[in-house]
Amino acid sequence: MSKASGRSGRRHDHDGCVRRAVSAAEELCTRRQVSLTPLRKRVLEIVWRGHEPIGAYEILAEIGKAREKVGPPTVYRALEFLQNAGLVHRVDALNAFVGCDHPDEGHAAQFLICSKCRRVTEIEDAGLTRALRERASALGFRFERGAVEIKALCDDCAVGV
Amino acid sequence: MSKASGRSGRRHDHDGCVRRAVSAAEELCTRRQVSLTPLRKRVLEIVWRGHEPIGAYEILAEIGKAREKVGPPTVYRALEFLQNAGLVHRVDALNAFVGCDHPDEGHAAQFLICSKCRRVTEIEDAGLTRALRERASALGFRFERGAVEIKALCDDCAVGV
DNA sequence: CATCGGAATGTTATACTATTACGCCCTTGC
DNA sequence: GCAAGGGCGTAATAGTATAACATTCCGATG
Fold it and tell me: How far is A1 from B125, CA to CA, in rounded Å?
């Protein structure tokens, strides 16, 4: 299952993207008085560098290229920190992690995932967020820092079906 | 992570529940000319017996109690069949499986999952389904046999936060 | 200065989840 | 009979995640 990072046509300034995410993270961590250590920052960069969800062991390999090898717990701990800070989401359907644009409260990440080819698209839909929030709260759930994964068939995969 | 199957107060006729699910499955498989073998039926029963999502290896253990031991592939194959038939959903957030009430097309299972304690509640919300379907189709996704997982904090876990 | 304590990371081993690859048996249709 | 395919058994292994313990660093405190 290789990452088809060239799949989408849109090319954007990815370095800028990463830099922006990291400096926002630095600002946020300073404000909250938690420390964005070099390791954590490195993991955040790696997560942002590809625009697609990335597996923990891929991150591990990436770090291993430049540093002494580290073990899985090191990466998982960094990811846990980043998730708690709202800087990263875990995509359960892919066992993978992806950067979050809006580490601020009240945002719910929404992912559309093709059940067949695993392609992922992020949604940003206020109406949907509102609907989900209402429904959730009616059932005794609070939605801060929530995440939604929607599994469906993408058009490409639906062709011959 | 043990299954707190006694958590919810509501007691209902579970045997009846299982029986109904199985006979609906039989009917469906006959109609579609696929075979609900004894093993597959057994897995389906086990999935339905607890009302909560159950892990593949738990199913494995359950089968092992009554039969000669079988290996993981046996269980995963049965689960794959049941998923394709729409009789079972996989809950990615839990690496677990749960029976589906509506194996018919067009239904989208929706699960609310507490990010902290992993408690699960199934939602049935036509409006939400419609909103999701619209949004998905606008982005090139078809929603048949879809599933939605919503991760949020349940009230119990939100108390001290 | 000494040292205590906590946070972060390193290290080893292991648990848990899932799949690959191969072989057997049985049924169905020729 | 026997070829073909479906379903299952079995062994090995891949992929994902965590437990448990050791180490290092650094700031606070006496």
Answer: 34
Mutation test of the interface with chain B: which of A7, A132, A159, choosing the one with the most B Cβ atoms within 10 A?
A132
* Cα A83 to Cα A77: distance, rounded to the nearest angstrom: 10
Nearest-neighbour CA in chain A from B97: distance (Å): 13
The burial of A67, by beta-carbon neighbours within 10 Å (0-12 exposed, 13-18 middle, 19 or more buried), is given as exposed
Given CB atoms, is B128 within the 8 Å cutoff of chain A?
Answer: yes
Q: What is the largest CA-CA distance in chain B?
A: 53
**In whole angstroms, what is the distance from residue A14 CA to residue A69 CA?**
26
Burial A38-62 (b: 16+ CB within 10 A, else e): ebbbbbbbbbbbbbbbbbbebbbeb
Distance from CA(B74) to C1'(C24), angstroms, rounded? 15
Q: Are strands B141-154 and B120-123 parallel, antiparallel or unpaired?
A: unpaired
Q: Which of B90, B114, B149, B154 is the best residue to mutate to test the A interface, defined by the most A CB atoms within 10 Å of its own CB?
A: B149
pLDDT for A101: 85
DSSP symbols for A118-139: --EEEE--HHHHHHHHHHHHHT
pLDDT in tens, B60-81: 999 999 878 899 999 999 999 9
Cα(B147)–Cα(B86) distance, integer angstroms: 11
Is-contact B96 B107, C-beta < 8 A?
Answer: no
More confident residue, B115 or A146: B115
Provide, rounded to the nearest whole percent, the portion of chain A with pLDDT above 70. 91
State pLDDT tens for residues A121-143: 998 888 888 888 888 899 999 88
